[in-house]
Amino acid sequence: MPAIESSVYLARPMGEMFEYLADPENLPVWDVSVIRAAQVGSGPMVLGSRTEGTAKIMGKTFDWTSEITDLDPPHRVTYTSVTARLPFAATNTL
User: Fold this and answer.
1) What pTM, to 2 d.p., does this model score?
2) pLDDT tens-digit profile of 77-87?
3) What is the 8-class DSSP label of residue 53?
4) Quick check: 53 and 24 in contact, CB under 8 A?
5) Residue 68 and residue 79: Cα distance in Å, rounded?
6) Model confidence at 42: pLDDT above 80
7) What are the two backbone dihedrals, phi and then psi, of residue 28, each rounded to the nearest 5 degrees?
8) Cis peptide before 74, with omega less than 30 degrees from 0?
9) Interatomic CA distance for residues 49 and 60, integer angstroms
10) Among 40, 22, 41, CA closest to 91
11) What is the mean pLDDT of the chain?
């Protein structure tokens, strides 16, 4: 699986940044490939929580569902595709 990696420095408290990154509603704000994203169900995002969304990558638009497969607040969250035309795993590390 190809890997894409990027880094950015933000002068904000780590806990505040983690809450922002782990909220699927914010995903289209900071990931230009995501058109929409929303949590499946309600409640806090925990291990096993799912997100549904739509992405556009290399001119192709596709829907996906992902699941949190690794969670270590406020340091790391990994989303792994459950259904997607283009399988993926995305890890956000602070």
Assistant:
1) 0.85
2) 999 999 998 89
3) E
4) yes
5) 5
6) yes
7) -65, -20
8) yes
9) 26
10) 22
11) 91
Write out pLDDT tens, residues 53-66.
999 988 999 999 99
Nearest to 60, CA basis, from 84, 83, 89? 84
User: In the chain, what are the domain boundaries?
Assistant: 14-93
Compute φ and ψ for 22, nearest 5 degrees: -80, -10
**How many residues in total does the chain contain?**
94
- Residue 1 confidence (pLDDT): 62
- Residue 2 is predicted with a pLDDT of 65
Say which CATH architecture domain 14-93 belongs to: 2-Layer Sandwich (3.30)
Helix %, strand %, coil % of the chain (to 5): 15, 45, 40
Task: For tokens 């929409």, name the residue.
Answer: 36
Whether the Cβ atoms of residue 33 and residue 26 lie closer than 8 Å to each other: no
And the tokens for 38? 């929303």
Task: Evaluate whether 7 touches 93 at the Cβ level (below 8 Å).
Answer: no
